[in-house]
């Protein structure tokens, strides 16, 4: 089921890169860490999955089937620390830990799953317009944390705390399916 979303996922990266660089040609970033500061993996990969899954499915059943097919194995094999998390506080801490790819080995893979669920939550609670504004605010001159605060009016750490129960529920769906 995930294959239907792959093109949408990658096309969303093209949109992200356009806003990140403010031009049609991507010139890259000097380092992975500099890139992560401007567009954290949890946003970059998770947002691409949020949009791809929403666009690629017609029913909630299809959406849920794709979610399970996409992430069930990832939770089992590629993110051992994530598998052990069972409290809201630990989940919020883990989400902060995966902000910079070079600082934690699970960052890249976990960012797809957690980012999808966090930004799904953000859209449901705060509306698509805020999410759209966040995408448009991305650029190389400000950090993602600043862009997030400018759009939502609070720190992303608060979003991690606020969405952590929702994320834990999503993980439970994967663990029991």
Description:
This protein has 177 residues and is mainly alpha-helical. It is built from ten helices and no strands. Helix 4 crosses helix 10, helix 6 (88-97) packs across helix 10 and helix 8 (128-137) packs antiparallel against helix 9 (144-152). The longest helix has 21 residues, at 156-176. It starts with a helix and ends with a helix. The mean pLDDT is 86.
Any low-confidence stretches, pLDDT <50, length ≥5?
A: none
List the helices and strands in order.
HHHHHHHHHH
Ends distance: 16 Å
**Could you report the average pLDDT, rounded to the nearest whole number?**
86
| Overall shape | globular
- Quick one: biggest sheet? none
Rg is 15 Å
Strand tally is 0
Approximately how much helix is present in the residues? over 70%
Q: DSSP strand (E) fraction?
A: under 5%
The number of distinct helices, counting runs of at least 4 residues, comes to 10
Task: Specify the structural class.
Answer: mainly alpha
């Amino acid at each position: 089921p995930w294959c239907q979303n792959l093109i949408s996922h990658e096309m969303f990266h093209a949109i992200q890169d356009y806003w990140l660089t403010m031009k049609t040609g991507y010139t890259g970033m000097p380092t992975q860490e500099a890139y992560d500061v401007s567009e954290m993996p949890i946003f970059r990969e998770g947002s691409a999955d949020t949009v791809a899954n929403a666009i690629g499915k017609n029913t909630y059943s299809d959406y849920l089937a794709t979610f399970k097919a996409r992430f069930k194995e990832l939770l089992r094999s590629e993110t051992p620390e994530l598998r052990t998390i069972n409290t809201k506080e630990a989940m919020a801490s883990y989400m902060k830990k995966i902000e910079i790819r070079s600082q934690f080995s699970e960052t890249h893979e976990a960012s797809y799953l957690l980012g999808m669920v966090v930004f799904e939550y953000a859209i449901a609670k705060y509306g698509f317009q805020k999410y759209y504004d966040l995408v448009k605010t991305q650029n190389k001159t400000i950090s993602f944390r600043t862009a997030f605060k400018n759009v939502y009016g609070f720190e992303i750490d608060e979003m991690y705390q606020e969405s952590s129960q929702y994320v834990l529920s999503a993980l439970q769906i994967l663990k029991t399916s």
